[in-house]
Amino acid sequence: MAKPGPAPQTRTPRVLLAAPPGPAAAAARRDLDARGYLLADAASVAEALDALAAGKCDLAILAAELPGRDPLALIAEIRDRGYALPLLLTTPAGAADLRVRALNQGADDCLDAPFHPGELAARAGALLRRAGFRPAGESGPVLNPQLAIGDVKLHRLRRQATVHDAPVALTLREFDLLEYLMRAGGAVRTREKILTTLWSGQADSSEHLLDVYIGRLRTKLADAGASPDFIETVRGVGYRIAT
Predict the structure, then answer these.
(1) For residue 37, which of 115, 142, 156, 166 has the smallest C-alpha distance?
(2) How does DSSP classify residue 233?
């Protein structure tokens, strides 16, 4: 009689999205975020390797055009370092030879860009299910409809923030900004990264406007009973959530 496999993991998977800023990365981020994954972002090979070294990623999605290293060399280095997490490589259209070599090098899946909306998240889900992320009675990975740090909670499906379980009225941009910072789990988000990730290409995006939104968030959260230092400024770098 065959022995039963390991029980599925019920925590929320953390996905590393390593891709240069742009419309394709923004679309991929929306796709993955809609599935409720915790996301870690990297815009270069160095950032991707740092994220993996932190040891909190369950799946890595790598763009072939990620600056800093040939994609095949990057896959080889990831495997040489002993990281066994699933790897999905997005490649330019028609790059069949690259896909074959990437799979032989250690990638678990490849996907041609541009890809159909939803396909990237579906493939990510398939890889994560193989890795054991499947809640009882469900066919997909565990979703994370709520983020909580201290007394501040985000109900992502309802797009509602609460402090001490009391609702806090946030605008769309304020909610997106707070969610992005909380998803980092206390890691610093640079000002450039915030603007590029959340509001890339929008005419009214600027560092001054970011400061305005941070100020509004701090005021609203503090008025609701959160610590005035819940959102910390890292001088010359960006912002982080105090944990």
Answers:
(1) 142
(2) E
